[in-house]
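Side project, low priority. Logging it here so it doesn't get lost.
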Amino acid sequence: MPGATAPPIGGFPQAGWAPSKPSGLALWAIITTGAYTLTSLIAAATAQATIDETKRVIEEGATTAPTDPLQFVSFLAMLASFVLLAMWMMTIRNNLKQRGIIAGGPPAVEWWGWFVPIANYILPFLGMKAIARRMVSIGTLLGWWVPFCLTWIIGTAAAFMSFSMFDWTTGEVTNLDALDATVTLSYASGAAILVSWLFLVRIIRKVTDAHLTAS
C-alpha cells in the first residue's frame, strides 16, 4: 500500500513501524469458534435421535455403528478455532509488547495451556485476562470461561453415564436406559457453549479495537 510502512522483517521491532489491528484474524477466530459452537448446538438438537439410533444398533447386535459426519466436522471446527484463537491472542500479546506493554501471564499459554490436565481449567483464562488488560470486565471474561469449562464437566458426566450401561463384571450391556440421561446433558452443554461463544465474541471485538490505544 503506497505510503504504508512495511512490518519488521522476522517480526523484530523497527523504527517507524507500528502494530496494526488484527481485524482479519479476529474475524476468522469468531467464525471458526462460531462454527464449533454451531456443531455443538446441532449435536444437542439431535441428541435424542442419536441415542435412539445407538440403542437400536446395540439391541440388534450390529458389529459396526453408523458413522456420524457431524463428529468429524466438529473436530475440524474445534481444531481450526483453537489455532485461530491462539494466533489472535499471540498477535494481541505481540502488539502490546511492540507498544512497550508486557501483558504478563504465562508466556505463550494460548498454545499449550489447553493441554495441561486440571491446570487447563485456569491457564487459558489467565492468558486471556493478561492480554485483555482491563479492556473488558472480569465479568465478561468469566462469562466466556465458566460456561466453557462447564461443557468439559458436562462431557465428563455424560461419559460416566454412558459407561454405566455396562455390567462391569460381565462386560455386557445391561442398562440401555442409562443413555437417556445424556440427552439432557447435551442440551445443557449446547446452551453453555452458546453463552460462552457470545461472551468470547465480545472479548475478541473489544480487545481488537482497543488494544492499540489502551494503557
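Brief comment: Residues 166 and 172 are 6 Å apart (CA to CA).
Revisit when time allows.
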